[in-house]
Automatic annotation (TrEMBL):
Residues 521-536 have a biased composition (Polar residues). This is Glycoside hydrolase family 2 TIM barrel-domain containing protein. The lineage of its organism: Bacteria, Bacillati, Actinomycetota, Actinomycetes, Pseudonocardiales. Keywords: Glycosidase, Hydrolase. It holds the Pfam family Glyco_hydro2_C5.
Amino acid sequence: MVVAGLCATGGTAQSAAVEQVRPAGRAVDFTGAWKFALVNKTGEDVPQPDAQDPAWRDTRLPHDWSIGLDPVEGQHTGAGTGFLPGGLGWYRKTFTLPSSMAAKKVSIEFDGVYMDSQVYLNGVLLGHHPYGYTGFAYDLGSHARTDGTPNVLAVKVRNQVPSSRWYSGSGIYRDVRLVVTEPAHVTRHGVQVTTPDLADTIKSGYATMRVATTAVSEQGETQAEIVSTVKDPHGRVVGRGTARAALAAQPSTATTDVRIGKPALWSVDQPNLYTVDTEIRVRGEVVDTVRTRTGVRHFSFDPDNGFSLNGVEMKLKGVNLHHDLGALGAAVSTDAIVRQLRIMKSMGVNAVRTSHNPPSPEFVQACDEMGILLQVEAFDTWRAPKVRYDYGRFFDTHSSTDLREMVHAAKNSPAVVMWSIGNEIPDSSGAAGPPIARRLIDDVRAVDTTRPIVMGSDRYRRVPAVGSPQDQILQMLDGLGLNYNNASSIDELHTRYPTKFFFEAESSSSTSTRGYYQDPDQLNTGENYTPGKRNTSSYDNNLETWTYSGEYGLKKDRDRKWFAGQFLWTGIDYIGEPTPYNVFPVKSSFFGAVDTAGFAKDFYHLFRSQWSTDPMVHLLPMNWTGHKPGEPVSVWAYSNADTVELYLNGKSLGEQKFDTKTTTYGARYLETTEATGDDKTVTTGPFPGSYTSPNSSVGKLHLTWSVPFQPGRLVAVAKRGGVVVARDEVRTAGEPHAIKLTPDRRVTKADGKSLTFVTAEVVDRAGVVVPDADDLISFQVRGGSLAGLDNGRQESAENYQASSRTAFNGKALAMVRSGQSPSAITVTARASGLRTATAMVAAIGGRPGRTAAAAEPAQEPVAAPVPTADASYSGARTTIPAAMLDGNPSTYWSNYYLKRATGLLPAVSRAHATDWVSLPAGEEPTGSVQMSFLTDASHARPASIAVSYWNGREFVPVRDSRIEWATEPGKPTSIRFAPVRSDRIRLELTSSAPGTAQGFLGVSEATVCSGR
């Protein structure tokens, strides 16, 4: 098959830079000198552009074209994938191979292309690989030219959105390499290292490292010696094994055992790694060498005692992580992966579930090196699709190959302790499910028999009927990951399936926005649909129907020894699935303990208080600025100390204490003793309606004070046994004064791909972060380049790869990529009216004389937004402030909300005590406002109205305000006041029945009137 523009003629070769391949080892980095053309954003299948087409742009892999596009509403985008388009893209690379490679075996390996890729060499189709998350390789064979004539490698990538339920990215987003070997060589993924019977042999002080090597000879039968040399974590040779094999065209496997004395075990605290160098020797000459890193460890999932590693019982303190890297999108970066995992480890995390797809090799390697356990997951869908263009189209034909590839790619990782064959699979409830599950389980075990096989499911919240598809599948699996089960349901499953182990594959799904707080006295809250304010509360109290609070999930897991642990949904916000909002431009999830920029939310500190032993205390709200004097503020403290004392401006507000309790299996923990009201399924015992531990206790995992606000410094002092062990404080901020830049490192590599993460904060004159600052910050980089900008805000239409970004709640993040020459990387951040900040990072190594990446152009000035109607809170998507001004009396703004019941909590609909609306005013002085209020079963006329106007810095009260209430139906209420000049008028409305379902506020029409 020949595609237009693919033939490697002399003219084509001259149209692009030609890379001369000079292999210096087995693998050649093939990520540089590519060209890319985005043909369309729809995914329509059309030919490759001509080589001279101006659409071609220089690029370097890994590359995600979608992350650089503007989020847009349209037929080919949606909230689920972050409003970022996919489309059809072509990549091409021109290269020459020396004549010395004519007798070599040459193949091209891709770690991942999203998705539905076709690869061509010199116009010949090498293969088609639909799945976006598994690696693949093609033999270049006779199609490659080794006479100095240029070769053209072309890759077609087609991502028809929606192809996923979350943001996938588009393109060759993982690494690519050329693999060059002699005819006799180890096959792809051809080395497998295991440590049989380690739990027994370690008692005698040794480990048996079994090295199985699969190799071939592509030029007739060859007698070979296979030598495996083992090096310990310090690089010292500690063992060697040899096997002989007659190699032929069909792969054959030879096995050797190497005894390792007193092995250094791999664990989450000491991730010791061994290296196995496997050589193929023919007539005494080494013709191929493969290096494998692995670890010596043993683990167990016991149905009665949970998880243990190296004989030590421990809970899986896990998180789910999707594969996007914030502003980098899907494009793989080791530095970005390591940063994410470091943040997770600092929270106390020891495990990650790769939701819901195989991870990159870089991710697995980072977990190996950092001591993070892994559940590696294969699919989000089997045959039945979840969205129109997902993997279900290809499942029957490709799933066995893709599943085996997943296992092969990570089989030597000591971090991997489970294989998952799927997540929330619709097929698993039907007759087709058990046969598919049986095939997939067999596929895994054909490669690896050393790890259990599980799946994640939301279909076991009740014990399945005997013989049902769910029952049949669970009988096949080694264990099951439950998604959002309550405590009683997991107890029932444990009783029904006593030989299976259970854990929570997805726990909690409490949603939150960094720095936003709402209704701390409620266990569940409504959502604010006001444009620009679409946030969710950080008091662990915004829950969808299937979800529960983080505290509930922690207690449920803690109380059951047999329960192996949990994987929080999610560790980090990800692009797409912006639950609970499905409206532009909300484009990232709210589920994370950390936002997409890597900034911790309060949820992070809740889990840190339960999962980390390092002394800590954390105060929320993190904003001690945006309150009225005397206003009661619900102050919480998360801590792993038994006592916390709170101080305001040096005055003690008293101590609060946790009780020390013990689980039924003897584990000690801290918890208050008070009814929690967080589980309506509990109908008996001393605390009906509250989650009750098997030891009959109830309580909360946080301490609470009600503090009348006054500006200054709020300090929490945590004590253990009366000894101060940790402190936290929040301070009242003044006006924004300057930008503060903090890079996460001072030295980086000058390799053209290393990243420095620079945090930008808007601070006042005292250096306090201004918690509501939203200044537009422009970044300029010299000696490197700007890789991406983020601020963690979920509701944002800003481009991730622009040169400017607004601060969100006082913060933004710049990802800075190094150049390829030794230099000083200078990052400069500017914002109108603020002091400019500069940070420097030294880039070392690289090649002297290489030109650094050009600095980005300055950001064009952004026009100030035109004032429009606004509100502190809008209860539904259709009742936003603009409805007051649309001239249609049947539409209206309202703060009414109805939060549906969850599995644990009743429905809630409680009017706020106050909310405000603001209206645009004209150039003439303003002296009155006319408003038509809703009065019905849910809405009542406000009890009072306070009017203020914007003076350029803040809202200040008007003078001589008086209300003329409407006395006839259809007539507006008039609010008159001394005339003011302002572009905005704000009206604070007080509910006549706060805390009830009848005291909500609604305005159908509003008019600002001239004061003349």
